[in-house]
Design brief:
The structure is a single chain. Helices cover about 40% and strands about 20% of the residues. The protein is built from 20 helices and 20 strands. The strands form 4 sheets. It has an 8-stranded antiparallel sheet with strand order 14-11-13-12-16-17-15-20. The protein is α+β, with helices and mostly antiparallel strands. Strand 16 and strand 17 form a beta hairpin.
């Protein structure tokens, strides 16, 4: 089935060959251009090419019919399969609002959506897809916006939300084994009823599945102390080639792979005992004071440390107005922190706050910021779309990156949020936008497309100070070497072992080709060439339009 996209590739190459054949002799060998043999041979080439394309198309149509027959057989056996167009439509997108022009470049339609109820059904799907060489795209709740679950190359999506069982809880070893479709919030509440809790979990925990966040390699709440989710994963079991089970006691190379190495079935996660927490917050009129204090506060090992600039605070909380925040001297933003009681050091906290001339806010505000840790996307009501640049930045360079961004964009057009982790800092730059504004037929909203490209401009800024994209996915696959670095060769070895037929979620780590209009061009080329051009464009664009 991969050949569906190759069909247009071969057609383009054939047209190019004909053009070369017909036009080159006209300039280089004029006497041959006018001979009958030249025209006859050209006609033969045209007929031969059309015949091959016609036979090729019939073969693909026949293969597609066989696939749907196989799917209908599985459906009759009780498997939940969605084939109708309106059923598949919702799975051709994730939480991000894509510019319409990107939907012209990529075909995000899938052949079918399958929702297996158990591992036996899941294995049969893998066997079917391997037989027909159909890409298989695992999907949880679809709460990411980086193209990690978007179907390409006429793939089949396997929805894993039925894999929602909490299998075992080992209280002595402090390990919980779960299936990949369990949501983080459900697991957190279950553990707290037993006197335990998670080491880290995403801000999208109420809807995000465990498998989705693990395959993204995410950072979130608790990462300030315990690092990425990969540091909490003890072992995993994957369904790979021929429907076989692969158990990995060292899952480091699988975490963050966007499901391109196999389908995550179940995993064991490290947990900790529930402990009391202390919630505090500090503010200042000077943003640079707050940014410089972040790495120092991080040395106190907070469970959660987040910085919000003033614009972020104003947009997220409709009860706050700008004048009241000015009067309270919080114009530089707020750092909110939550400490496990055993790590709380009041004396050192006060000392750091005094050294950086920061105001300690009331305990009520500290509690308020903690209680709203799941509501970051409230910013989207400013949109209705929300463009997010999410990058990993070395903490020591945060101030430089944030200052450079502030010089490039109007203060009122974006908001900044920083999540400090044990491995660095996650920088969020939020741009509310409207994908419906000034829409052009076929192309869509041109202003929204330009706004969406801001990410690549901000990435160019971040890379000057060793920054990189937060996660893999379709949009960031051209930067896989930057994202995975030394881990990439080991991931390739694991890919050969678990997925020799390369059916699992193609294009999300190792890149793909642009299947429409330019099918022989790797997706990495327009991104890598275009990013510097976008940077130059935004430098020349008057700031009032940014």
């Amino acid at each position: 089935m991969r050949t569906y996209d190759n069909l247009f590739t071969w057609f383009v190459l054939w047209v190019v060959l004909l053009l070369v054949y017909f036009f080159t002799p006209q300039f280089l060998i004029p006497e041959f251009y006018l001979r009958n043999e030249f025209l006859v041979l050209g006609l033969i080439l045209i007929l031969l090419g059309l015949s091959i394309l016609f036979l090729y198309f019939l073969a693909l149509k026949r293969q597609r019919k066989q696939i749907y027959t196989s799917l209908e057989t599985l459906q009759e056996a009780g498997m939940q399969i969605f084939i109708k167009k309106y059923e598949r439509l919702i799975y051709g997108r994730d939480i991000g609002d894509l510019p319409k022009i990107l939907r012209l470049l990529f075909n995000f339609n899938c052949l079918a959506v399958i929702q297996p109820k158990n591992v036996v059904e899941l294995k049969s799907i893998v066997v079917l897809c391997e037989h027909y060489k159909i890409p298989l795209i695992p999907r949880g709740a679809g709460t990411s916006g980086y193209g990690g679950t978007l179907p390409i190359k006429n793939g089949i999506i396997v929805n894993l939300t039925f894999f929602d069982k909490i299998i075992t809880l080992d209280e002595k070893k402090r390990i919980v084994e779960v299936e990949s479709g369990v949501t983080w919030e459900h697991l957190r509440r279950f553990l707290e009823s037993k006197g335990f809790t998670l080491q880290s979990y995403p801000s999208s925990a109420p809807s995000s599945t465990i498998g989705g966040w693990v395959t993204q390699g995410g950072y979130g709440i608790g990462s300030s102390k315990f690092g990425s989710v990969g540091q909490s994963v003890e072992s995993i079991t994957i369904i790979g080639t021929e429907g076989r089970e692969f158990h990995l006691d060292n899952p480091e190379n699988f975490v963050g792979s966007c499901g391109s190495l196999g389908i995550l079935w179940k995993l064991s996660i490290k947990i900790k005992a529930v402990s009391k927490m202390v919630h505090v917050a500090v503010s200042s009129t000077q943003q640079d004071h707050l940014l410089r204090a972040i790495p120092v506060y991080q040395n106190l090992f907070p469970f959660f440390l987040r910085y919000d600039d003033l614009q972020n605070l104003l947009w997220k909380d409709s009860d706050i107005n700008e004048s009241s925040w000015d009067s309270q001297d919080h114009t530089g933003g707020v750092i909110s922190m939550s400490f496990l009681e055993e790590n709380w050091d009041q004396e050192k906290f006060n000392e750091i706050s005094d050294n950086y001339q920061l105001s300690i806010l009331s305990s009520d505000l500290g509690e308020k910021f903690w209680s709203e840790r799941f509501y970051t996307i409230k910013l989207k009501r400013r949109g209705p779309s929300l463009i997010v640049a999410e990058l990993i930045i070395p903490t020591i360079h945060l101030e430089k990156v944030v200052k450079t961004i502030s010089k490039r964009f109007r203060k009122e057009s974006y908001a900044t949020e920083i999540l400090s982790t044990s491995d660095g800092s996650i920088l969020f730059v939020w741009f509310p936008a409207d994908f419906r504004s000034k829409s052009i037929p076929i192309i869509g909203s041109f202003p929204y497309t330009l706004h969406w490209l801001r990410f690549f401009f901000i990435l160019q800024i971040a890379r000057r100070w060793n920054g990189k994209p937060y996660s893999g996915g379709l949009w960031f696959s051209p930067y896989s070497g930057l994202i995975y670095q030394k881990k990439l060769p080991q991931m390739k070895q694991l890919k050969k072992k678990i997925d020799p037929n390369k059916i699992f979620n193609p294009g999300k780590v190792w890149g793909t080709r642009v299947p429409r209009f330019f099918p022989i061009i790797p997706w990495a080329i327009p991104i890598r060439l275009g990013a510097p051009i976008i940077g130059i464009f935004y430098r020349l664009l008057p700031k009032r339009f940014r």
